[in-house]
Write a structure and sequence with these properties.
alpha/beta; 9-stranded mixed β-sheet; 14 helices; 51% helix; globular
C-alpha cells in the first residue's frame, strides 16, 4: 500500500528516506519544499499538500514538531479534518503532551479514522541508521497494522497499550536521557577543570559499566568541542517541559529534571538553542566562572577547536 509521510525535519527526513530505500511506496509532504527533494530522488512521490497525501495513502505518518503543526496538517478544527482522516490510520510519531494525544485520538476515531501513537527513542544518527525504537499505543488492530510498516525505520517496536501510553513511555525514557547526558557533561567539566587527561577520562568511561552508545557519542562530541546538532538544546528543553507538566499533573516529584530544566533554559538564553544538548556545558561553565569569565573560560584540554557549531 501507499504510505503517507508528513514532516521531513531533522528526524523525519532520514526516517522517510529509510522507508523509501526499503521499497515502500511513499507519498510525502513538507512545509519547506526543498526538504522533499531528497525523497523525490529516492523514489517517493512529493504531494502538493497534506490533503493530497491523505487522498493517496490510507496510512499517514506524522513526524511534526508540535501539536500546532499536527493540527494544521490534519486540518483539525476545519471541515477538512473529517475528509482527511475518515477511513485512514493516523500515526503520530512526534513528541507532544499525553493529553494532546489523548484528545486527538478521540477526534480521529469520532471522524471515522484510526489512531496510533508511535514516538521514537533515538536522535538524528539512529534515525539515519534506521535504528530507532518505536513505542506504539492505540487500538490493538491498528497498532499491529502499523508495526511492520515501521520496520525500515524502527527495527524494535514495543506495544505499550492504549493511548497515551506510548508518549508516557517516551517521556519516561527522555527523563532518563536528559538527566544522564547532563550528568555526563557535568562530570566532563569536573574532570577537565581538575586538569585530568581527557583521553584517559574517555578510556575509563568507555571501559566501565556505565558506558553506552549514548555516552560514547556524547563524550566524543564534548572532547572535540563538537556541538553540531543531534538533539538540540531547544528541543531538549521542550521535552523537559512536557515531562515536567506530566509530572505535575500526577503530583510527582522530579528533582533532577527540574535542575536540568534550569540548566537548559540558561543554555538557551546564552544563544545555543540550535546546538546539540551537550552545549549545556556552557551553562555549567557560566555557573562556575560567572557571566563575564565564562566567555573566555578554558575549553576542554584536547588541543582542538571547541567553538560551538552555529
Amino acid at each position: 500500500m501507499d504510505i503517507g509521510f508528513i514532516g521531513l525535519g531533522v528526524m523525519g527526513q532520514p526516517m522517510a528516506l529509510n522507508l523509501a530505500r526499503a521499497g515502500t511506496a511513499l507519498v510525502v509532504w513538507n512545509r519547506t519544499p526543498a526538504k522533499s527533494e531528497a525523497l523525490r530522488a529516492a523514489g517517493a512521490t512529493v504531494a502538493a499538500g497534506p490533503a493530497e497525501v491523505f487522498k493517496r495513502a490510507r496510512v499517514v505518518i506524522l513526524m511534526l514538531a508540535d501539536g500546532a503543526a499536527v493540527d494544521s496538517a490534519l486540518g483539525r478544527g476545519t471541515p477538512d479534518f473529517e475528509a482527511n482522516v475518515a477511513g485512514h490510520t493516523v500515526v503520530h510519531m512526534g513528541t507532544t503532551s499525553p493529553d494532546y494525544s489523548r484528545g486527538l485520538e478521540a477526534e480521529v476515531r469520532a471522524a471515522g479514522g484510526s489512531y496510533v501513537e508511535a514516538p521514537v527513542s533515538g536522535s538524528r544518527k539512529p534515525a539515519e541508521a534506521g535504528a530507532l525504537v518505536a513505542m506504539l499505543a492505540g487500538e490493538p488492530a491498528a497498532a499491529e497494522l502499523v508495526r511492520p510498516l515501521l520496520q525500515p525505520m524502527c527495527p524494535e517496536t514495543i506495544i505499550c497499550g492504549p493511548v497515551p501510553n506510548g508518549l508516557l513511555m517516551k517521556l519516561s525514557i527522555n527523563l532518563f536521557l536528559i538527566t544522564m547526558v547532563t550528568g555526563l557533561v557535568e562530570a566532563t567539566h569536573f574532570a577537565d577543570r581538575h586538569g585530568l587527561d581527557m583521553e584517559q577520562f574517555r578510556a575509563v568511561l568507555d571501559a566501565g559499566p556505565m558506558a553506552s552508545n549514548v555516552s560514547r557519542v556524547k563524550i566524543s562530541k564534548l572532547l572535540a568541542g563538537d556541538f553540531s546538532l543531534e538533539a538540540s538544546i531547544s528541543n531538549v528543553l521542550e521535552n523537559n517541559r512536557l515531562i515536567a507538566e506530566a509530572a505535575r499533573e500526577s503530583h510527582l516529584a522530579s528533582p533532577l529534571l527540574d535542575v536540568c530544566h534550569d540548566l537548559y533554559g540558561e543554555t538557551l538564553a546564552l544563544g545555543h538553542g540550535k546546538s546539540d544538548m551537550v552545549a549545556v556545558l556552557r551553562a555549567i561553565e557560566t555557573r562556575t566562572d560567572g557571566p563575564r569569565q565564562a566567555e573566555v573560560s578554558a575549553e576542554p584540554n584536547t588541543g582542538q577547536d571547541t567553538t560551538p557549531a552555529p
